[in-house]
């Protein structure tokens, strides 16, 4: 049983695993929606065995992470996810780390890699260049692609917000099944992570995230400058490994060429058959190997 440490950083009291030797090369592993830090149990074991210091935080709105002030906007926008990550690294006095994540966590890692590259020794990103561009979000896509994002459109209205509030576990479990159709997760696997969704800010943060990315609600005014910087689609300059599960039911980027202009130092783009959206929990060996390749290169 791992111990969750609480650390005040920026707007948050962050709950996290902090494993491995304090003087080992630092790695930060970042989960997505609707998942939690348990996605990284097997990856953490592998990296600690190789001498890494491994930090696995609950994102804002998940697990034991809490807001320090009642009046802070419960924003889920990409800029604040990156700012949260930087604030945590500042508090823990980690000057640079290999950052690795998927979904929301991959976005936080991409934000830091793009805007504060000196803090990122290397990047492992699932689903490619994970930065959002809200001005383009209202442009319609092919119907088959639109159908993948039903949950986002559902959360744009009050019915969806109430649905998530009342049925958060059922909705999350459905997404796990849809997004990882070939992953035989157990009920125990799901319930271990689902406890993180009981966070009192989970619904507000999730709803804000999916409304903000479509331009339906304003973001946190303190991060307007950072959000504007992200809208320029900055090239990520750090060594990067991209991972994609080819059974991902929500997003897959099989064409490496589509990423070439976004990554100045793309090491490789690895695609794995049978793996869905929750890459690190479904395929920990490949995920951990990608992280270690960047640790050793750094």
Summarize the structure.
This protein is 38% helix and 17% strand.
Can you describe what's shown?
By secondary structure, the chain is an alpha/beta fold. The chain is 38% helix and 17% strand. It is built from twelve helices and nine strands. Strands 1, 2, 3, 4, 5, 6, 7, 8 and 9 form a nine-stranded mixed β-sheet that branches. α1 (41-49) packs parallel to α12 (284-297). It is globular, with a radius of gyration of 18 Å. The mean pLDDT is 96.
Which secondary structure elements does this structure contain, and how are they paired or packed?
Blueprint: E1 5-9, E2 12-19, E3 26-30, H1 41-49, E4 53-57, E5 66-67, H2 78-91, E6 97-101, H3 103-115, E7 120-126, H4 143-148, H5 150-154, H6 158-166, H7 168-179, H8 187-194, H9 202-212, H10 224-231, E8 240-245, E9 266-272, H11 279-282, H12 284-297
Parallel strand pairs: 3-4, 3-6, 6-7, 7-8, 8-9
Antiparallel strand pairs: 1-2, 2-4, 2-5
